[in-house]
Amino acid sequence: MTVVLGTGVLRLELRTDGAAIYPTGDPTVERTRQDRRDFRELEQVVALVTATSAEGTVVDHTGLAYVKRLHESLAGVPGVDAGRSFSLATIPDPTPGGSQVFIPSLLDELPSEEGGLVRLRERIRASPMARGLFVSDDGRAAAIVVSLDRRHPREEVFSDLEAWVEHQRIAGFELGLTGPVAAEVSLGRAVLVDLLRLVPAMMAVVALLLFVSLRCVGGVLVALAEVGLVLVWTLGLMGHLGMPVTIVTTVLPVVVLAMAVIDEIHLLQRFAVHRRHDREVQGSPMLAAVRDVASPIILTSLTTAAGLLSFLAASIAPIRQFGLFAAIGILFAMGLSFSFVPAAVAALPDRWFRVPAHRAGIFRVRRTGKLGALLVGGAVVLVVAPGVGRLAVQDSWIDNLDPESRLVRTEHAFNEHLWGTYRYDVVLHGPDTYFQRAEGLQLLADVERAARSGPFVGGVLSQLSAYETAAVLEGEPGSILEATPETVWRISGLLHLFQRRIGLRQLLRGDGAAARVRIFVNSADFERVRRLETHLARAIPRAIGARAVGYHFSGDLPASQAAVRSVVSNMTRSITWALPAVALILSVAYRSVPLGLVALAPLGFSLTVLLGTMGYGGVPLGIATSMFCAVAIGVGVDFAVHYLHACEQLREDGVEPTLVASSAWHRVGPSIQWSALVLTLGPLVLALSGMLPVRSLGLLLSAAIALCYVATRMLLPPIVTRWFGSREVGRRASHDRVVVPVHQGAPGGK
Length: 750
Prior knowledge:
Elements: H1 2-6, H2 27-38, E1 44-51, H3 61-73, H4 114-126, E2 141-147, H5 154-167, E3 173-178, H6 180-214, H7 217-240, H8 252-260, H9 262-277, H10 285-309, H11 317-337, H12 340-347, H13 371-384, H14 406-417, E4 422-429, H15 438-452, E5 457-461, H16 464-471, H17 485-494, H18 499-502, E6 514-521, H19 526-544, E7 550-554, H20 556-590, H21 593-617, H22 628-636, H23 638-652, H24 657-684, H25 692-732
Antiparallel strand pairs: 1-2, 1-3, 4-6, 4-7, 5-6
Helix pairs in contact: 6-7, 6-8, 6-24, 7-8, 7-11, 7-12, 8-11, 8-24, 9-10, 9-24, 10-11, 10-20, 10-22, 10-23, 13-21, 13-25, 15-19, 20-21, 20-22, 21-22, 21-25, 22-25, 23-24, 23-25, 24-25
């Protein structure tokens, strides 16, 4: 299996574009894809030039010459479509009654005398296509929109652009790259770095914890070999099936690694106990250990897989892939626990498994079964639960990256000086040529006005700016909306002279039946865009009025909003599926619905406390923070399952019901404590990630597991004491009390 599946690891692909996490079949996402085809939209990276000195600007002779030189040098960058890149160097600069054959650009001739520079700055300031989009009002920043050739991988082109930036730097100006494509490529690199850094770090942490808990070299080697096989098989299967590594599935190796090793902690600790105390037992100590823990290992593997498989209800493909392959990895681990691990223990030298006197665990428990713990737990839930209703949704592409990175600094500078890099499109569609006629332009003006009044709008762009620029050739220096229908029609014909230089095709469809109004959102995040959406949902229909024109929303921001909403709704959907599935598995296994629900009590306590605390603390739900619940549901019942299984064994052995709770904890408490430590500290390795969502997921998952352990320790002993007491004491009242010694692994346990 390792030879067959392992070759698939070499076929794994990395995919981090925004479309990778868009929900499948979402109407907004589908419209966005279609609009990009209809308007022939190119992927673009923004190069931002900013003046670094207090008195410097980009609209003096040096700055304008630098912008012009940068634009011209783009022709030498492989994979850049320089002919469809835009800046001040491509904006037409027509003169009334001037030539319609050759129309100069703003930077064609740069005057050296101050008077000429003043007049050029005035023309730049007056250009409807320049201010806010390609140059800031204060003149301290200018943008070059670099279009990428579709025939070249964008990751390679972006690397070439980074090298271009380093070669084009000059004193007095800062040059950086930003924009949605830059953010996605940078995120992809962070994903790859995480894979190369987090998996070895996780292996080191797990190895250390295994050695501290098992206290033998053989146990560490066997457990690490087992989880190594699980990772190779799981990732190899993904590669063979053509499933890419995305921002979501990048955490899969770390999560699977932490969960897969837990079974080995329980199995090898029981093996150590039998090896030390039960040398006369029929068969080998390993077979005795397998008999002890086979049932809870199978049960916890099934509940963990059920929690992860609840992700199959998600509408986002990478989340479905994460749930499916994480569940497969857990089932691989279960199979190896009963095959590879016993075989490896038998094959390795016996001295490798010699351990010193067994330690009871991290914390020695003095008291069990106290009713006060239930009362405290109930009080905590009552206090914290209202916070769940205060949970909010918030996310942002750029905030997922290192805030000290050059890209993030460039993004903040762009939002400070210019309109913003992220766009929200209003797409209008009417009859053929409608948006090349006066009535269509009037509608665009009305929609622009409605859009500009929205919150967090940096600027608005439509074909109106191109029409006003071309109107100068017709001697119409006033508003294009005041021109006659005949003049508007003639100007529509003139625009073909420079439409490629301004990217008109990305704003107006070729047949004139559809047009875009592009809204640039300043420092876009989920909450800002949500408020803008609320405004547009009211304002755009009013602006259109009774006109026979349709509209829809699309673009980077509506698609990303759909993705975040889908992920958050997936959390609710996964909880809805996972909790009943886990409850059903436990109830069938225990042949008791109440006992199955008892096993879920620590998990319910943990999720309520954590989500309520998040609500009170203002920690929002986002793409990553919405995923931890389903993972915690599957893993969080492990402690309860092992504890309840020990209780059932002791009850069947005839242990006094009032002693079952404490005796069970002495038997399995050490392995539960060590597995809780691994499951808590393991995901904390994700805090080393360069991506905020991954760090957040690691912290929340660790917190959830820690709370599950605490709740198991607090809540289950008193519940078990009363549960078995009520079921057994009356039935056994007429019999002699029997106390059976139990092999603990802890000195003096009964």
